[in-house]
From TrEMBL:
Protein name as catalogued: ABC transporter substrate-binding protein
Statement: the UniProt record of this protein carries the keyword Acetylation: no
Domain Solute-binding protein family: 81-441
Entry keyword annotation includes Transmembrane helix: no
Recorded GO MF terms: peptide transmembrane transporter activity
CDD domains on file: PBP2_TmCBP_oligosaccharides_like (cd08509)
Species name: Candidatus Ruania gallistercoris
One annotated Gene Ontology cellular component of this protein: ATP-binding cassette (ABC) transporter complex
Length: 554
């Protein structure tokens, strides 16, 4: 069960990017009226008209989170709490095998047809009835019951408490049965999408997608935005120039030296915010082969790293990570009190002592034991700007503190992903504990059921960590949503992580938000925000746009 659930969860997680950008403004038809918000997605010079979110093709239209809506919303500003959206309420049975959704009764599709339980059942069953879609089936799905137009009952064959957050992702966003059942969901490009969302397609060209705000949107009126424009750009440098030139309202890029290079260029209007994503970026150890199978070696290598110095190299606003890998700003209520606010710090004395305890020695920069040399290599993704800086800096820190020479193996992204999945690394750059649910995140990183032989691709736990006590704790976590019980299990898991160091969290992962407020105001204050104003977020991106008003004087 756990392997199937995490495969689905990973498909959901990977479908969502945590980077998005904005672009060139089109002049308003009325020079005295501001009604259009301009933004963009980077990485492409043009767009393809394909609004099928389940299409297996790689070339699809961007930002489908502005078109389609999920049943629930994951509140990233409140500990990943799952809240109502298209479903006005939801409830698990005590045994975790039945999940009931009660749908809102005031929702219509953009073509005027009513939104009903038949649409939900059709959508959720689609991956099980049609082969070849780019979306995973619901794990352990037994059946879906629709006793009336506004009730959906999902029956599982095994307890699935922690599947709830997955209903807040776009791969489970609901599509209209009356439109889709007439088409081939694999081949169809859905050029004029019908949805429950706030926007309809006004016009499309490879260089400009224009969306119009619906008059009949179920969640109320917008405060000023009537149109949203989306344009492509090939590089972050070009996107940054657009927002600096007041050609873009909203972006989502990590910006090196943002205080001087962005905010300082126009302190009144240029805003840069960093919102916690809940997980960490860091380094994964090979737990099956080589010197990193020794806990003392892992501790020594981790203690020698100065995450703060690494942060300053990239200087995009990220902070050193919590050593559990869970971000305390998001998951603090579930972490032990003495752990929640901890950030990783370099400890040179500890690093030296742990290496000595391992029985390994360092001779001429080489890690030695019983007369044998054990070369150490850190594999990084050469397509990642940050890690192109971090790798050499970590190499220098290991040499400075431990006298070790560590080779940096910077490879293109596709090869990095292959090496990661196959376990063909000693140490490797990796996202740690990513996900919208605490059990899903920890289970994917630490459950031994995912362990595969070196050379065989693993869908999770690519470090190949094995611990029977950890597996037992994860099993206990999977059987409950009770906060007190989860806190106890998360605390016990955290203690094992801190002791055994199966991976090395370095920085808190983040959503980067860049705003030029020359034309639009009403952006949330990060100090008390109830939603994240990031362009790729399901639901939250729509809420952000809904609350914007023309800046005074526009």
């Amino acid at each position: 069960m756990k392997r199937r659930l995490i495969a689905a969860a990973l498909a959901l997680t990977l479908s969502a990017s945590i980077a998005a950008c904005s672009t060139e403004r089109t002049p308003e038809s009325d020079a005295d009226t501001v009604d259009t918000l301009t933004l963009a997605m980077g990485g492409s010079t043009s767009y393809v008209q394909n609004f099928n979110p389940f299409s297996p093709t790689a070339n699809k239209s961007p930002l489908m989170n502005l078109i389609y809506e999920p049943l629930v919303r994951v509140n990233r500003t409140d500990g990943m709490k799952v809240e109502p959206w298209l479903a006005e309420s939801f409830d698990f049975s005590e045994d975790g095998m039945t999940l009931t959704f009660n749908l809102r009764q005031d929702v219509t599709w953009s073509d005027g047809e009513p939104f009903t339980s038949d649409d939900v059942r059709y959508t959720l069953e689609l991956p099980t009835t049609v082969e070849g879609l780019a979306v995973a089936p619901i794990p352990d799905l037994d059946s879906i019951e629709t006793p009336d137009e506004h009730t959906v009952i999902v029956h599982y064959s095994e307890p699935q408490y922690h599947d709830l957050a997955n209903y807040g992702q776009i791969p489970r966003a609901i599509v209209p049965q009356h439109v889709w059942e007439e088409e081939d969901p694999v081949q169809w490009t859905n050029e004029d999408p019908v949805s429950t969302g706030a926007f309809t397609l006004d016009s499309f060209s490879p260089q400009l997608i224009k969306l119009e705000v619906r008059d009949s949107y179920w969640n109320g009126e917008f405060n000023g935005v009537e149109y949203v424009q989306i344009r492509p750009f090939a590089s972050e440098d070009s996107g940054k120039q657009m927002i600096l030139k007041n050609e873009v309202d909203w972006a989502g890029m990590g910006w090196q030296n943002y205080e001087d290079n962005f905010v300082g260029a126009d302190p009144e209007h240029n805003h840069y915010w960093v919102y916690p994503a809940g997980f960490s970026t860091g380094m994964l150890y090979n737990m099956q082969e080589g010197p990193t199978t020794d806990v003392h070696v892992r501790r020594a290598l981790y203690a020698a790293i100065d995450s703060e110095r690494l942060s300053l190299l990239n200087n995009v606003g990220t902070a050193p990570a919590n050593p559990t890998g869970l971000d305390g700003d998001t998951w603090g209520p579930l972490l032990p009190d003495d752990v929640a606010d901890v950030r990783h710090e370099q400890d040179a004395e500890l690093a030296v002592a742990e290496l000595e305890a391992s029985g390994y020695t360092v001779e001429n920069g080489n890690l030695m034991k019983d007369g044998e040399s054990f070369p150490l290599t850190l594999t990084t993704n050469s397509d990642d700007i940050g890690w192109n800086l971090f790798g050499p800096a970590m190499q220098e820190q290991w040499n400075e503190i431990l006298g070790l020479n560590v080779e940096i193996n910077a490879v293109p992204g596709q090869q990095w992903q292959r090496d990661l999945n196959n376990g063909e690394f000693q140490m490797i750059q990796q996202y740690l504990l990513s996900g919208d649910d605490v059990w899903t995140s920890m289970n994917a990183q630490l459950n031994s059921s995912f362990v595969e032989p070196i050379g065989t691709a693993a869908i999770a736990n690519q470090g190949r960590y094995e611990n029977e006590e950890m597996d037992r704790l994860l099993e206990d976590m999977s059987q409950t949503l009770d906060e007190a019980e989860l806190r106890e299990s998360v605390g016990a898991v955290s203690r094992i992580i801190l002791d055994e160091v199966p991976y090395a969290p370095l920085h808190s992962a983040a959503y980067f938000v860049n705003v030029n407020s020359t034309q639009w105001s009403g952006w949330p204050d990060p100090e008390n925000a109830s939603y994240i104003p990031h362009i790729t977020q399901p639901v939250d991106a729509t809420i952000t746009i809904q609350n914007l008003t023309p800046t005074e004087g526009q």
